[in-house]
Design a protein that fits this description.
This protein is α+β, with helices and mostly antiparallel strands. About 50% of the residues lie in helices and about 20% in strands. The protein folds into 3 domains: about 160 residues, 2-Layer Sandwich (Beta-Lactamase); about 90 residues, PAS domain (Beta-Lactamase, 2-Layer Sandwich); about 210 residues, Heat Shock Protein 90, CATH 3.30.565. It has a 5-stranded antiparallel sheet, sandwiched between helices. The chain has a 5-stranded mixed sheet with strand order 10-11-12-14-13. A 4-stranded antiparallel sheet has the order 1-4-3-2.
Length: about 525
């Protein structure tokens, strides 16, 4: 099994605990050291003051002038020591001979320690090791009336006594350090708990790998992804999303409001609405995209909006062509049945001995079909467009619609790519056939394709109910369709061709009371 890694929250808590503990211990040690220094300083000041008081005492000067100073100075020094709380008060001669000491056996013995500065007339304090151990002591000279040094006074406090007093203050110091440590530990634990909840208990290596994998996946998938925050700002957009929306790779869109980014109108409207969308077709420039939009939530809280985009331009074009082929196939099947019926009728007339009527019936239908074919082929030399018009004629006939090719229709040389020309003509005719479906007879669709004043003009009129004036402006821009479900993209595909070739479109009323769609494309620009 792989070694279990600490989460970021756990590592942060451990680091904070160690840092806080070290800081508290360092603070306590510093406070202890300062207290120790203050205690030593206070001890030095205390012993110096006591020594100076004893040295200036007239009783001490008088005792030093007697034959037996120890008998007088020993009781005086002990009473002073007990009264001041010091560890020793020693009165000595200039030659170090002690006249007093807490240990009586040491009276008369030489004093241990430095006395040079005092013999020179300078009181001083020093830390020395004597018969009672290490001590902080003061040595002060004793003067007679003639300002001669007749003795020395040394007062001291042992270091152990100072430390005992300092240790007595340690509980107070710990009383401040322990709550501070507990408070810091509690704060670190709460912070790590919050961080663990936000990072889902992941470790730094796991989060690094997750970021690398997610970033690689997001920028390599062939589906556009746009993530918005709750205030409608772009939090993430991958490479495919930039490509589909026509944004430069270096365009500063992250953390920008949607309203401030140059997006296709349909996409901007979808992002700005914040509504859910499922496989909704939108037009982005010359592309047809399928959009899915969802509001993301975590534990009931709204985090933002996720939009995914798939490019279906080629698929929509192929589907449109497939629809045309399917319609043509159905029309041919219907014509086959109709032709079979007529053929049976002709054969029956022959069998009944009425050949003249059989000839007239057969040649009449053949003449009508041939007349339509001759008109289309004579007017349009583009084979694909001619086949499209013939197929649409058969489809219209099957639906009970009279598809009329205008007499002045003429196109000798197509200035457009064949696919673009078929897209414009085929979708306009399909929309017209949809518009007249279900309307009272006669149902009529008129088609004109030709070059007029250096422009390729495609004009399709129908006898349907017509297009409402308030919807004319949105017809091409938003991919509007005459289909009842509103999901058609025929006009959107036409709008792409118009935009690509720098043309223009017009929507008006036909002479039959329906809609009149006119598309004008510059011939020179299209050829170039």
């Amino acid at each position: 099994m792989a070694r279990r890694q600490w989460s970021i929250a756990g590592q942060l808590f451990a680091l904070q605990a160690v840092v806080v503990t070290l800081l508290v211990l360092a603070g306590a040690a510093g406070a202890f050291w300062l207290a120790r220094s203050d205690a030593r300083q206070a001890a030095q000041e205390e012993v110096l003051a006591v020594a100076q008081t004893v040295a200036r005492s007239p009783d001490v000067r008088a005792a030093l002038a007697t034959a037996d100073p120890a008998s007088i100075l020993q009781p005086y020094a002990e009473s002073t020591r007990l009264a001041t709380g010091t560890d020793f008060v020693v009165v000595m001669a200039p030659d170090r001979t002690r006249f007093s000491h807490p240990t009586r056996e040491l009276i008369g013995q030489p004093f241990v320690g430095e006395i040079g500065p005092a013999l020179a007339g300078q009181p001083f304090t020093v830390t020395n090791v004597g018969t009672l151990g290490e001590s902080v002591r003061a040595v002060v000279p004793v003067y007679d009336d003639q300002r001669r040094i007749v003795g020395l006074v040394s007062v001291g406090i042992t270091t152990s006594a100072i430390n005992r007093k300092l240790l007595g203050q340690l509980p107070v110091l710990l009383g401040f350090a322990a709550p501070a440590l507990a408070l810091a530990a509690t704060g670190s634990w709460l912070l790590s708990r919050r961080l663990r909840r936000q990072t889902h208990g992941l470790g730094p290596a796991q989060m690094t790998r997750m970021y690398e994998y997610y970033d690689a996946v997001l920028h390599s998938v062939r589906e556009g992804l746009v993530v918005l925050t709750t205030d409608r700002r772009v939090a993430l957009i991958n490479d495919e999303g930039r490509r589909l929306l026509g944004l430069d790779a270096d365009a500063p869109v992250i953390d920008q409001p949607v309203a401030g980014i140059d997006l296709p109108p349909a996409v901007a409207e979808l992002l700005g609405s914040g509504r859910d969308a499922l496989d909704e077709p939108v037009v982005a420039g010359d592309r047809v995209l399928v959009a899915n939009q969802r509001i993301t939530r975590f534990e009931g809280a709204v985090l933002g909006t996720v939009l995914t985009l798939r490019d279906q331009t080629e698929l929509r074009s192929l589907a449109s062509e497939l629809d045309s082929v399917r319609a043509l196939t159905e029309a041919l099947q219907a014509q086959t049945h109709e032709s079979a019926n007529r053929l049976h009728t002709v054969l029956t007339l022959v069998e009944l001995g009425r050949p003249d009527e059989a000839v007239r019936l057969g040649t009449r239908d053949l003449a009508l079909a041939q007349q339509l074919t001759d008109r289309v082929v004579g007017a349009v030399t583009e084979p694909a467009l001619a086949a499209l018009l013939l197929g649409k004629s058969a489809q219209a006939s099957e639906r009970g619609v009279d598809l009329v090719i205008e007499p002045d229709c003429r196109l000798d040389d197509s200035p457009l790519p064949t696919n673009d020309l078929l897209t414009v003509v085929g979708n306009l005719i399909d929309n017209a056939l949809e518009a007249v479906a279900g309307t009272p007879a006669p149902r009529r669709v008129r088609v004109f394709v030709g070059a007029v004043d250096d422009e390729l003009v495609v004009r399709v009129a129908d006898s349907g109910p017509g297009l409402a004036p308030d919807r004319v402006q949105d017809a091409f821009r938003r991919g509007w369709s005459t289909k009842s479900n509103g999901r058609g993209l025929g006009l959107a595909l036409i709008g792409q061709v118009i935009h690509r070739h720098g043309g223009r479109s017009e929507v008006g009323r036909s002479d039959d009371g329906g809609s009149l769609f006119t598309v004008r494309l510059p011939v020179v620009r299209a050829r170039r």
